[in-house]
């Protein structure tokens, strides 16, 4: 593990009531999706050597931690989130030696490396799962195996143990002829859920984690970690299974019931996370643990991330990224800034006294924020809205996460045909909703995919204006695994790197501000003008010093909301402007006119 090459906060600064300020409270994490970051061997897929080759770019940006989406050995059914060997690198990305080189070169630059840990499930090609097909093998109870529904022929429609549906479409149960039973998979049928009730499973996971920590990584981002504890009855049975004491939920419009209420934040969640902390991290320093947390409320986030409880450092909550979705993920509704503000406010309030927040709008599972809630219809609108959402996110209290290309203002892919998509979730959702359940028209579903498909975040990183955006060589024999966004000729790192007015230049300012200003990293957060329809405003405060943050989340000029205007009644000069999306002089004029221009954001020292 490595130390950071950035200013340290004073020991007197505290992030919550439980502990002195930890190293990650003024750090910024950068997520890399390896298959789309940099290809060095011309096979159309990014690789570890590609990441190593771009470390100077990341160091220049100023980020502190690199989170790598999975690079473990995998059949790649779900782009590496189906792991067949936790202690080897998939040849698609390179070798263990390449990983060691990346660690060494990152640490030389003061960059930490966090790996993606996927232990709610494995690949169905993992040796553990292969062994579990034999009921006499010691691994027989390492997964959730159940017999067919009584009175039904195993492997026939309707014989599944209960009515649960997979998040990736179809039943959450898959029949295995070798064992004569079904196994649970909340995601792809090639991603069987591990049985964390079995202590042997947990020990194997902890041993693997220790192996990686001893090799020199700096922590883990833990995929759907809040799904590892299932809600079972007194006999250890899942809801809706024959003889279970707990009933299943009714089926929904797609023909299945949801496993989420019974698989998210189960009764042993805290126990498992505390055990992991003891078995893997106790006695180590300088690490980071962050968990992806479906089904977790802001209040539960406070408990899990409270250092006194010794579970995880932080969690990714998802209630705020549901903005813009209707009854299901695939039904779109207009963006409402007030809705987003309410969700983020609840997250901030929950960790006011203890715990910590993760700050993100983008990742490998979310569309590009500038297309989702901003405006990418013109170059001017794209730049302004990208900066507005960047300012908004980074000025909250917590640890910001930047997803590759977000610092450039990269946009959605704007695909127009289904054959352009590679994402398993998107393709399966089209089949299930349009072709099978017939609850959505092809046109409507294509509109939804264009807006929120995960592939919007997975197009190749836009390094330059060459034919493949610098992701792979222009004369490569193989095209990238997914199409490059055509707008890479205008939106790319080479064009923005030396431009202080670019989105990249603005992100550098935001990251430096978090490093250098204790108010940003550790100050209290208090909302202002909570009823305004367009302006998201709040005050950050530490030791009597205050910053007012105002962001107009619309493309048209709006009046300053009343409470913010009252705080600025004495007037503002350029010396008070800490950072502004349109520059200090523009912000001073706007405030003097009692307004904010479209997508204008500003931070003012009061």
Automatic annotation (TrEMBL):
CDD domains: AmyAc_SI_OligoGlu_DGase. Residues 31-458 form the Glycosyl hydrolase family 13 catalytic domain. One of its GO terms (molecular function) is alpha-amylase activity. Gene3D superfamilies: Glycosidases, Golgi alpha-mannosidase II, Oligo-1,6-glucosidase, Domain 2. This is Alpha-amylase. Keywords: Glycosidase, Hydrolase. GO terms for biological process: oligosaccharide catabolic process. InterPro entries: GH, GH13_cat_dom, Glyco_hydro_b, O16G_dom_2. Belongs to the glycosyl hydrolase 13 family.
């Amino acid at each position: 593990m490595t130390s950071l090459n950035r200013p340290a906060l004073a020991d007197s600064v505290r992030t919550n009531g439980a502990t002195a300020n930890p190293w990650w409270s003024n750090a910024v994490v950068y997520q890399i999706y390896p298959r789309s970051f940099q290809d060095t061997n011309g096979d159309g897929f990014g690789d570890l050597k590609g990441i190593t080759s771009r470390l100077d770019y990341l160091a220049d940006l100023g980020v502190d931690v690199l989170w790598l989406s999975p690079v473990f050995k995998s059949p790649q059914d779900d782009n590496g989130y189906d792991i067949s060997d936790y202690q080897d690198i998939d040849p698609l990305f390179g070798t263990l030696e390449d990983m060691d080189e990346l660690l060494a070169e990152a640490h030389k630059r003061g960059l930490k490396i966090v790996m993606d840990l996927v232990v709610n499930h494995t690949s169905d090609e993992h040796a553990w799962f292969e062994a579990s097909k034999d009921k006499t093998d010691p691994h027989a109870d390492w997964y959730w195996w159940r017999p067919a529904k009584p009175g039904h022929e195993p492997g026939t429609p309707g014989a599944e143990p209960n009515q649960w549906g997979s998040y990736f479409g179809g039943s959450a149960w898959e029949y295995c002829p070798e064992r004569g039973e079904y196994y649970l998979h909340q995601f792809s049928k090639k991603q069987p859920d591990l049985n964390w009730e079995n202590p042997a499973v947990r020990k194997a996971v902890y041993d693997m984690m220790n192996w990686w920590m001893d090799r020199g990584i700096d922590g883990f981002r833990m995929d759907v970690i809040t799904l590892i504890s299932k809600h079972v009855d007194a006999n250890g049975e899942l809801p809706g299974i024959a003889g279970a004491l707990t009933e299943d939920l009714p089926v929904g419009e797609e023909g299945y019931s949801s496993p989420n209420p019974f698989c998210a934040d189960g009764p042993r969640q805290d126990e498992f996370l505390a055990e992991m902390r003891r078995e893997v991290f106790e006695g180590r320093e300088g690490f980071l643990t962050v968990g992806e947390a479906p089904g977790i409320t802001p209040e539960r986030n406070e408990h899990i991330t409270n250092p006194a409880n010794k579970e995880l450092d932080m969690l990714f909550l998802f209630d705020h990224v549901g903005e813009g979705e209707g009854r299901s993920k695939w039904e779109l509704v207009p963006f409402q800034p007030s809705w987003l503000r309410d969700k983020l406010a609840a997250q901030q309030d929950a960790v006011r006294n203890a715990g910590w927040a993760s700050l993100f709008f983008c990742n490998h599972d979310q569309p590009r924020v500038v297309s989702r809630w901003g405006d990418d219809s013109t170059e001017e609108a794209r730049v302004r809205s990208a900066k507005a959402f960047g300012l908004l996110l980074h000025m909250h209290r917590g640890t910001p996460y930047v997803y590759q290309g977000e610092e450039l203002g990269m946009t959605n892919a704007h695909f127009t045909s289904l054959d352009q998509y590679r994402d398993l979730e998107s393709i399966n959702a089209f089949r299930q909703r349009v072709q099978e359940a017939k609850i959505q028209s092809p046109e409507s579903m294509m509109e939804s995919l264009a807006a929120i498909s995960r592939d919007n975040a997975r197009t190749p990183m836009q390094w330059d204006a060459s034919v493949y955006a610098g992701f792979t060589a222009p004369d490569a024999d193989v095209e990238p695994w997914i199409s490059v966004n055509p707008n890479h000729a205008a939106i790319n790192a080479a064009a923005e790197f030396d431009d202080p007015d670019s989105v990249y230049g603005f992100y550098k300012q935001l990251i430096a501000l978090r490093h250098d200003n204790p108010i940003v990293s550790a100050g209290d957060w208090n909302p202002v003008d909570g009823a305004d329809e367009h302006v998201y405003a709040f005050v950050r405060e530490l030791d009597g010093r205050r910053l007012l943050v105002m962001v107009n989340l619309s493309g048209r000029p709006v009046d300053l909301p009343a409470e913010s205007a009252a705080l600025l009644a004495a007037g503002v000069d350029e010396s008070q402007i800490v950072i502004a999306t349109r520059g200090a002089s523009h912000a001073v004029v706007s405030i003097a006119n009692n307004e904010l221009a479209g997508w204008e954001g500003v931070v003012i020292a009061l």
